[in-house]
Fold:
Amino acid sequence: MKQSEQRNLTMVMDLYELTMANGYFNDGDKETKVAFDVFYRKNPDRGGFAIFAGLEQIIEYIENLHFSEEDVAYLRSLNTFTEDFLTYLKTFSFHGDLYAFPEGTIMYPNEPIITVVAPLIDAQLVETAILALVNHQSLVATKTRRIVKAAAGKAVADFGARRAHNMDAAVYGARAAYIGGAVGTATVLAGQMFDIPVSGTMAHSWVMYYQDEFEAFKHYAENYPDNTILLVDTYDTLKSGVPNAIRTAKEVLEPMGKRLKGIRIDSGDLAYLSIKVRDMLDEAGLTDCKITVSNSLDEYTINSLISQNAKIDSYGVGERLITGASSEYSDDTLSLLGAVYKIAAVEENGTFMPRIKISGNVEKITNPGLKKVYRVYDAKGKARADLIAKAEEEIDMSKEFRFVDPQMPWKNQFFANCTAKPLQQKIFENGKKVYNQPTLKEIRAYVDKQLREEIWEEEQRFYNPHKHYMDMTPDYYDMKMSLLHDSRK
Structure:
């Protein structure tokens, strides 16, 4: 069962969305159509890209959008809204269009990930939920991919539920982590809801409950002989934990015809300990016993472990995966995605007229109007740039195609021997879903394919990644500049 079917999440919105909607309704503007874009301004962790995640939950939210009698009664108690507006909310449902990148798409700053084209009130009321879902899951998926890349082929599992910001963050964070490349999760509800492989063995409390460590290991092995993974750092990893694990393998498992599957280290100098533990296991003939580590890991600590030739087979990553936190920089804003929801156009006499937000900060000036975004590929299938165009423009790359780099608009530049693919797809039309959703495994595979085949390795560096080009068609660039010039009158 989807979580959205168990509870009504419609009221997950900021109060100002309702106060604005009430004002629009009272002014007779509820059917005016508008376009809003969802985009973000900086990649988290100073990275070269981000991963779009959360679309499935956005779809569920919009499909189940309705105000219950209890919702309306609560809003009435605020003494803020007119009775006519509250009556309107009783039968409200979303009846606009929504366009989005396919979930799992590699994305970049300042391009429209999602565009909502809908009556004004409809477009306004969905803002908070869309941003909450995009910001959380996209951040976790992106962070997980960085960790997976650092692990260099070794398995990464999500161990973060108890460090998540709440229970929903644990469950949907596990989903996002799987999209980003984690092999599984320790969060059981995420496994149940999304068919993500679950894993987990014991905590230190299991070992401490028994009179001695060997007794604890013995009981565990007898209960789970086919999947015995022992936590060896409760007392002393090298002097007690590993010797007792080896004893369990020899005296408990091998007489049953079973092998010790693995050990886990959760504290101490993980590089040093893993090397020593590997030697001890190999000397005991347990060359097939795997070493898993946990304990405040992220992409930087994993990079460090690998550079020290640590003998680690898999990583259980907790708080810095599930929260997207970074240990590398003191500026906490670097570990945020920060997607925003900005109006781009308003329908006037049957035509959508562009709107632009002006700011003293150049990065906060918006890209106006109805638009399309394309990914431009070179002859080898590598993503050369993204291209923003007016919605009605025809993009023909069968011949040289002129574009504008907004960072260097004076240069005369062309795409040659390239192809262009539109990134947004229609998800809702007049409030009805028209999109065939991929499975979670298909989304995960899509991420992997893009990063393996399409996205330049230079963009995937942790330090000083190559900046992906965000270009514009000449017509779109001229329109934006015209609006900026007009705003100064």
Q: What stands out?
A: The chain has two domains: 3-140+334-486, 141-322. The mean pLDDT is 95.
